[in-house]
Amino acid sequence: MKRSFWLNVALLLGVAVVGVIVYFQPPADAPVEHAVSTLTPAAANSVRIERTGRAAIVLHRKQSAWFLVEPFPARADEFMVQRLLAILQARTIHRFPAKDLARFDLDRPQARLVIDDQRFDFGLVNELAREQYLLTGDAVYALSTRYGLALPIRPEALVSRRLFAPGESPVRIAPPGFSVTKAQGRWVLEPAPRDQSAEDITRWVEEWRFASAQRIEPGQQGEPQEVVRLELSDGTHLVLGILSRKPELVLLRADQRLEYYFAAEAGQRLLSPPGTARNEHANTK
After folding, report:
1. What tens digit of pLDDT does each residue of 119-152 get?
2. What is the pLDDT of residue 193?
3. How far apart (Å, rounded) are the C-alpha atoms in residues 193 and 66?
4. Global pTM value
5. By CB neighbour count within 10 A (0-12 exposed, 13-18 middle, 19+ buried), where does 139 fall?
6. CA distance 193 to 202
7. DSSP letter string over the chain?
């Protein structure tokens, strides 16, 4: 009896295994997905975007960070770069021979993306299917339009809006009229206020450290009338030009030749002594 019991158990297990295999095995007529690249985002080292009548946009990876190198040098926004590299992992069931390219508008592509040595040409958009035809290698693929939409027209869209790079940590910040300096592990405001909390000072420093602009523009407005002087933890001295306070705060990083645009309220907090702008805002309510 024991022998027949275990035999039945083995048969049931066998049936279960076969059932699982049949359940998860794709049907014989299932469409085949085609990868558009064998590259991976982690292995990519260069990106080039070309559009007719516009200067090429070029990015290079340096160690673990991406930088814009053409048409001007700047730190790149990591999220925006990863949107570009996402095409390397794209897959589709729609693949056609690279013939009669004119019917896909690929004889004169709208845009070209080059990642390392692989070229991607973007052509006609099928509005009904929300797909765009892409030429790479010896084939044309129909992909989601999100890959083409990830290509910026202006290089500024790829620039990091963070005022400071990850390794840039201020230890002294001196806007016009006052300064905040890190001394013996604590932040000191000068001239010394009568009633200023350490929490207000710390919050103000953190806002500077992680300041992120609403937008970035190439520097071209001229000489600043005022400046913010900073010292970084590695001893580097940095001067930010104040080009405008209203209707927006515009700070010029001359070392990068870039202008950083902040909302007026954020600009007031950055240029006022810690806690001052917040208190004034509360009193006006």
Report:
1. 999 999 999 889 999 999 999 999 999 999 999 9
2. 72
3. 42
4. 0.76
5. middle
6. 15
7. -HHHHHHHHHHHHHHHHHHHHHHHSPPTTPPPPEES-S--GGG--EEEEE-TTS--EEEEEETTEEEEEESS-EEBPHHHHHHHHGGGG-EES-EEES--GGGGT-SS-SEEEEETTEEEEEEEEETTTTEEEEEETTEEEEEETHHHHTS-SSGGGGB--BSS-TT--EEEEE-TT-EEEEETTEEEEESPPSS--HHHHHHHHHHHHT-B-SEEEES-S---SEEEEEEETTS-EEEEEEEE-SSEEEEEETTTTEEEEEEHHHHHHHHSPTTHHHHHHHHT-
b/e string for 2-13 if b means 16 or more Cβ within 10 A? eeeeeeeeeeee
* R_g of the chain computed on alpha carbons: 28
Res 49: pLDDT = 97
Mean pLDDT for 48-69 is 94
Listed in sequence order, the residues at least 6 apart from 245 whose beta carbon sits closer than 8 Å to its beta carbon are: 264, 267, 271
Strand 139-144's sheet: what is its strand order? 74-75, 65-70, 57-62, 46-50, 111-115, 118-126, 131-136, 139-144, 95-97
**DSSP string covering 35-55, please?**
ES-S--GGG--EEEEE-TTS-
pLDDT of 24 strictly over 70: no
**Of 116, 105, 110, 112, residue with least CA distance to 37:** 116
Closest CA to 157 of 214, 220, 108, 222: 214
The answer to whether the peptide bond before residue 152 is cis (omega within 30 degrees of 0) is no
